[in-house]
Amino acid sequence: MVICYPESHVMVCGTCISMYDRVGSHGSPRFRAAGGMNLKKRVGYFVVTVALLSVVGCSAATSTATPTATVTVTQTVTASPAPVSPPAAPSSPGTPVQVKDTGATATFFQYKQISDEYNKDLGALEVEVCLGADPKDGKSVPSVSSQRWSLRDANNGMHDRPSGYTGNPVTPMYPEGGALNWGECARGWIIMPIVDGTPITEARYITSEGKVFSWTV
Q1: Residue 8: partners with Cβ closer than 8 Å, 6 or more residues away
Q2: Burial of 178 from C-beta contacts in 10 A (0-12 / 13-18 / 19+)
Q3: What are residue 127's DSSP bridge partners?
Q4: Is 34 helix (H, G, I), strand (E, B) or coil?
Q5: In sequence order, which residues have a C-beta less than 8 Å from that of residue 108 and are 6 or more positions away?
Q6: Cβ distance 104 to 132 under 8 Å?
Q7: Residue 160: is it exposed, middle or buried by C-beta count within 10 angstroms (0-12/13-18/19+)?
Q8: Rounded to an integer, what distance in angstroms lies between the CA atom of residue 215 and that of residue 217?
Q9: How far is CA 1 from CA 59, 148, 197, in A?
Q10: Is the CB of residue 13 less than 8 Å from the CB of residue 54?
Q11: Could you name the CATH architecture of 97-216?
């Protein structure tokens, strides 16, 4: 904090300014009235000058830059769903289709309506599966299963072989498991309880990974 002494000084913008001229070897102030100007006029001009300096000078010294506003714009982007690929068109009967990376293939040959010895309606499809090369994963077993095959009708009905079925109206029957080696094929008929006249449209095979392959009937 700045304090001005003696009382003949005033503070302007943090600086002490004398109201009188200092003259003389001893530093004592005396009033000068140069140009015929009396004391009251000099004091009046001095007050006006100090007032102007206070308004103009101090305001300029203490002015600060106007702050610039910062605006952050956030945009929300909604990801579009990935298009769904249509299912592959069914293959023609008799066409081998690779169903495993190891080279395994599956083939549907034909479908026909039959009856068992009790005159019950049955559907029979002739299929073949050829095992690929040994995957050498230490856990895969060279075998086949009729449960991987099914039939689909025009009303979206699905038909498969019931477990525990022992009838044998057509031969050879498709093996369940079987003593197979890697690279061998197994061909035969699979029987399903299907009412005569049911509009069967597709034969299907599903892999252990859940991939589905189909043929037209």
Answers
A1: 18, 19, 20, 29
A2: middle
A3: 108, 188
A4: helix
A5: 91, 93, 94, 125, 126, 127, 203, 205, 215, 217
A6: yes
A7: middle
A8: 6
A9: 19, 96, 110
A10: yes
A11: Sandwich (2.60)
**Sign of the torsion formed by the C-alpha atoms of 36, 38, 44 and 47:** positive
What pLDDT, in 10s, does the model give residues 186-210?
Answer: 999 999 999 999 999 999 999 989 9
Give the per-residue pLDDT at 39: 44
Cα angle, residue 153 at apex, residues 107 and 149 outer, rounded to 5°: 35
189 contacts: CB under 8 Å, gap ≥ 6:
124, 125, 126, 170, 171, 172, 173, 174
Give tens-digit pLDDT for 117-176.
888 899 999 999 999 999 888 888 899 999 999 999 999 999 998 776 666 688 899 988
CA-CA distance, 195 to 168, in Å (whole number)? 18
Question: Would you list the domain boundaries of the chain?
Answer: 1-23+37-55, 97-216
